[in-house]
Amino acid sequence: MSLKNLVAKTGQLSRFILRLDRIRIPLWLVGISFFTLIVPPAFKELYASQQERDVMAETMQNPAMIAMVGPGDLANYTVGAMTAHQMLLMTAVVAGLMSILLVTRHTRADEEDGRIEMIRSLPAGRLSYLNATLIVSLITCIVLALINGVGLYGLGIESMDLEGSMLYGTALGATALFFAGVTAIFAQLTESSRGTIGYSLAVLLGAYLFRGITDVSNESLSWISPLGWVTKAEVYSANNWWPIVLMVGASFVLFVVANYLNAIRDLERGFMPSKPGRKYASRFLQSPMGLALRLQKTGLIAWAVGMYILGASYGSVFGDMEGFFQSNEMMAQLLQEAEGASLTEQFLPMLMVVITLLATVPPIMAINKLRGEEKKGRLDHLLGRAVSRVELMGGYLIISILNGFVMVSLAAIGLWSAAAAVMDDPLSFSTVYGAAMGYYPAILVMIGVASFIIGFVPKWTNFIWMYVLFSFFVLYLGGLFDFPEWVGKLTPYGFVPQAPIEEVTFMPLFLLSVLGVALIFAGLAGFRRRDLE
Amino acid sequence: MSVLTVKNLTKKFGKFTALDGVNLEVNSGEIFGFIGPNGAGKSTTIRVLLGILKATEGDIKVFGKDAWADAVEIHKRVAYVPGDVNLWPNLTGGEVIDLFVKLRGSNNQSRREELIKKFDLDPTKKCRTYSKGNRQKVALIAAFSSDADLYILDEPTSGLDPLMENVFQECVMDVKKQGKSVLLSSHILSEVEKLCDKVGIIRQGKIIETGSLSELRHLTRTQILVDTKQPITGLSELKGIHEVIESEQGLSFQVDTEEMDEVMKYISQFSIIKIESAPPTLEDLFMRHYEGTETASDTGVGGGK
Questions:
Q1: Quick check: B75 and A382 CB within 8 A?
Q2: Which residues face B183 on adjacent strands?
Q3: pLDDT digits (tens, 9 = 90+) for A35-60
Q4: Residue A131, class by beta-carbon neighbours within 10 Å (0-12 exposed, 13-18 middle, 19+ buried)?
Q5: B261 falls in which pLDDT band (50, 70, 90)?
Q6: Are the C-beta atoms of A432 and A419 separated by less than 8 Å?
Q7: Residues A439-477 pLDDT 10s
Q8: CATH H-level, domain B218-285: superfamily
Q9: What does DSSP assign to residue A320?
Q10: Three-state DSSP class for residue B43
């Protein structure tokens, strides 16, 4: 078969994929660009003088921060250098994630569902769909690079010149392109879209962690990680283009390998055969709750690990914060010590809001899984047998309630253990754990709202995410935008006393718990009475 | 003794009436065939029977208990196979079978192994890799390896090959021998004809015909092919004659069952050389119910939810 035949109709298919993703791709692009572009003006506002930026640079000068955001030009910490240091790597990881999801969607996922079979039965080439996907990825990456490059330059901040800005954008685009290549290869190797996403994510996270470890221990070794190349571009200081050129070159090599692998394999087969599973169900699986737990097992473990790491990474900066306050008298005067709480302890409530809001996500996913199963028509199998609706939903609720508890606990333990390791005068465990657990009743209310929606207006199940997002904006940005107090009270988190600064009173927590439990039971009652889809 | 009785079942989804006064009865040891075109209300009826949907009106009893309120008690004695089997992609077939059997409350390990062999299923494969037919096998094995008293099967064979269809029919006959009841919704009419004692036809949410096959056949026509020495004349003037076609083999036509005697007497005057008659098939019966009331393209049968 000639090359022309192998890729026949690629152009048409590219336009088709662009049409399919005409909302998805712009959303990703807008989301990533938005977070890139709001940060430099905020930095300029918050750290107006070089002196303030140098103070910031000082707090960045520790292994924990280097592991998290990479090395930066701390000696010359302009707004540009600060943005590149604190934002570029994280944004590049998100851009990589975008590519993984978009490419999987049109490679292995389409193949698994038999859609590629349909395409192949048409007069399109064997490699056309893969290359159409890669072309769409390439276009997406170029647009991403241009929006961010031009956008950053357009902010008109002194330290952000055209070259640096274009390099910033290109670094994002190149990372996205590289992971498009990685995903395209795993789409050939594995036999399922879950496998493709899983392995590609593992490479992304592995690259991030490896870079973190080597950036701290031996910086030349972090050349092995493609994400290391992003920080080595030294955007807005040295402006090295060639690590990014290397990245683009490597991406095209990955594309060629993916094409080769695709050409030599059979449709719907992979090179990593899926291993056979169990022949019999374990005792653990054989109940509605066991099944619900089993279905969420992987996600649950991933979230648990993630929450611990999140807590630990917050905790790891406490040591530097302590030193920072001790050495900075002005700051100490500014932040007057609240009664009974040290300066570092005053940072706890703000961290706790972020941590507990994130810890709300997995329990809500756990209860919403019930609705997901209903929509896929798999609840019929259970309800067609000797399983009552209360037992079924009850199982999901118990998992969700325990899940929230475990997530908050793990984050708190992570924060406490990391803080204890780096502080001279460590926080007590009960202070940290207590501050976190104060938010648990608010999480119960969120689970209650989700369960109520599932019980009465199941079509609106995803509305709960809007509420979570709303809570996040109100609480996280509330202080910044100076919202009136009643806005904060529109979310259950607004009622939680901010331990250890505020006194913890029993009443609000008790009332939140009662409300949460009442909503949960109402949801159960609604689920018992309504038609299933 | 009746295992399942449905009286005046009405189900509305908003303003749309999906089921309009449905009546059904299945007795113990009976196989009841439930047929009707796409969207007629077969699956909706079954989902009401299983307590997954709540009836707007009507009295639905399974084993004498209320299908909605006593769903769990009832389901301990019911095995259900849906038409569109969706399974959890990351569990193996073996795990799903065990889970289903366990959730029904009974366990028959040897029967499980026997059925896995009979249906030729690899239980170690993840459900995501199964074809439609294989997913259906999982549901069928789970159903038949549990000791239920009523089997509710919603188009259970739509993805099976003829060999597996035979295995399925054996399984159904087996449970019938044990005195159990089956409600079989199907669009494979030959299968219904072979297995069912009684048939109910549903259309636009109403049961339009119900009874044993022989009762229903009375309502239909017999296909006759006859060759005579003298050409038959004036046949089409007789009552109950339809679709007369002349061919090389002779004259073929359909006769209403109640007019059979008159017609036979009439054509015997023309000295019969050869006569062939075919009993009315369920398909003829089915088609006849829709003739004139719907366009030809709408007379398909079966379908999903």
A1: no
A2: B32, B152
A3: 899 889 988 888 888 988 888 887 77
A4: buried
A5: confident
A6: yes
A7: 999 999 999 999 999 999 999 998 998 899 889 888 876
A8: YebC, transcriptional regulation domain (3.30.70.980)
A9: H
A10: helix
Percent with pLDDT over 70 in chain A: 94
Chain B environment of A282 (Cβ under 8 Å) = 95
Alpha helix positions (H), chain B: 42-49, 71-75, 93-104, 109-119, 132-144, 162-177, 189-195, 213-217, 260-268, 282-290
User: CB contact, 8 Å: B110 with chain A?
Assistant: no
Render pLDDT for B66-76 as a digit per residue (tens, 0 to 9).
Answer: 999 888 888 88
Q: Do A386 and B54 touch (CB under 8 A)?
A: no
Domain coordinates of chain B in residue numbers? 2-212, 218-285
CA angle B18, B21, B24 (to 5 degrees): 105
Q: How far is A305 from chain B (nearest CA, A)?
A: 22
User: How do the domains of chain A map onto residue ranges?
Assistant: 3-264, 287-529
Q: Which residues of chain B does A381 touch, with a Cβ-Cβ cutoff of 8 Å?
A: 80, 82, 87, 100, 139
Which residue matches tokens 């065939």?
A: B33
Between strands B241-247 and B250-256, the pairing is antiparallel
pLDDT in tens, A204-216: 988 988 888 888 7
Work out the mean pLDDT of chain B and round it to a whole number: 86
Sign of CA dihedral B116, B118, B119, B125: positive
B250 contacts B227 by C-beta, under 8 angstroms: yes
Q: Distance between CA A98 and CA A21 in Å, rounded? A: 12
Q: Considering CB atoms only, which of A278, A387, A532 is closest to B72?
A: A387
Residues of A in contact with B92 (CB under 8 A): 276-279
* Fold exhibited by the domain B2-212: Rossmann fold (3.40.50)
Task: Tell me if B71 and A383 make a contact (CB, 8 A cut-off).
Answer: yes
What SS3 class is residue B249? coil
Most A-contacting residue of B12, B45, B52 (CB-CB within 10 A), to test interface: B52
pLDDT at B296 over 50: no
pLDDT tens-digit series, residues A370-407: 999 998 889 998 998 888 999 999 999 999 999 999 99
pLDDT over 90, % of chain A: 53
Tell me the C-alpha distance between A361 and A248, whole Å. 35
Residue B72 contacts A where some CB pair is shorter than 8 Å = yes
Reply yes or no on whether the pLDDT at B289 is more than 90. Answer: no
Strand partners, B152: B80, B183
Q: What is the mean pLDDT of chain A?
A: 88
Predicted confidence (pLDDT) at residue A480 exceeds the cutoff of 70: no
Residues 6+ apart with CB under 8 A from A172: A32, A36, A88, A91, A92, A95, A144, A145, A148
ipTM: 0.70
SS percent in chain B: helix, strand, coil, step 5: 35, 30, 35
- Interface check for A458 against chain B (CB to CB < 8 A): the answer is no
